[in-house]
Predict the structure of Caffeoyl-CoA O-methyltransferase.
Amino acid sequence: MPMKVMNVKKTLELGVFTGYSLLTTALALLLMAKYITAIDVDKEAYEVGLPFIQKAGVEHKINSCQSDAFTVLNDFITKGEEEGSFDFAFVDADKDSYMEYHKQLMKLVKVGEIIAYDNTLWFGTVAEPEENVQEFAWKGIKYLLELNSFLAADDRVESAVVSIGDGLTLCTRLC
């Protein structure tokens, strides 16, 4: 992400895994950036990438939360201090929760800023007829098709699907 161009200072990342996208975001943030709140239930996976984050000298930019994302996001919303305070959110967590994350992120991400959803093309299966979809892809395809349709019709965001990797949907919050 071109964080320097976007003047991003405060971000959320839901679903960190080994921290590749987290490291990329941390490296791209401006020097004056506050921090990245990185949320994942699996601390062990995050620790795999931690030496690379440390070697890059960006660990101080990361507030790592071992938790389910709903707990942290609900706390932010309930306390009211974080509403509309994030410049960017990257979502790569449990696909069946993307719709619920979207509801919460619309309260937390500033108007005019971006929410990015990873894996929205789901191995290309979102464009395949049902009979061509392999069994391993069934779990996520239903949720991603729902999300893609919802975002295309949601007049609160302007969205674009980028066909890199496994698909990335970028949503600019309009209101």
The chain has a mean pLDDT of 91. The two ends are 22 Å apart (CA to CA). The chain has one domain: 3-173.
